[in-house]
Write a structure and sequence with these properties.
With 154 residues, this protein is α+β, with helices and mostly antiparallel strands. The protein is built from 5 helices and 4 strands, in the order βαββααβαα.
């Protein structure tokens, strides 16, 4: 069965989403989400009733935003994140978000028809925070192959 790459990343807002501090971030949500959806290798992203994920809470923290998506492979996600207009917005993250002291993103492989839940994604992120990078949960720093992931038992 084909395996795709899932990712979660979280960010802690400096102010409520409807505050002036967050206005430019909010204004860029739809264009950046559209860019992701039209990127090579994009499969799926987490959405709420507003076509983004801003109302979905994680770790019982009203100031944490979650982003979760599935891609064909690591290279597709990397291309979108760091070699598209997304990078321009990413570079501005200090305007809207606190510096995270813990790991705030995780990558892992999923079967092609699987869409990971927020609970599954937080388990991967928590595992990465506790155990470091393994084929079960990793980052762009240490990429693992699908075969390594399939043969790894946490």
């Amino acid at each position: 069965m084909t395996q795709y790459l899932a990712q979660i990343n979280i960010a802690k807002m400096l102010a409520p989403l409807d505050s002036p501090v967050m206005a430019d971030f909010v204004a860029n949500l739809d264009p950046i989400n559209a860019l992701a959806e039209n990127s090579d290798g994009f499969i799926w992203r987490l959405k709420d009733e507003h076509d983004n994920a801003t109302s979905i809470k994680i770790y019982d923290d009203e100031y944490l935003l979650v982003n979760k998506s599935v891609w064909v492979d690591v290279d597709s996600l990397f291309q979108f994140a760091f070699q598209s207009h997304h990078l321009d917005i990413f570079k501005r993250r200090k305007e809207w978000f606190e510096k995270m002291t813990q790991m705030h993103m995780a990558l892992w492989f999923v079967p092609e028809d699987h869409r990971p839940s927020v609970e599954e994604a937080t388990l991967r992120l928590d595992y990465l925070r506790t155990h470091g990078e393994t084929p079960y949960a990793f980052s762009f720093e240490k990429k693992f192959s699908v075969n390594e992931a399939l043969n790894f038992l946490p």
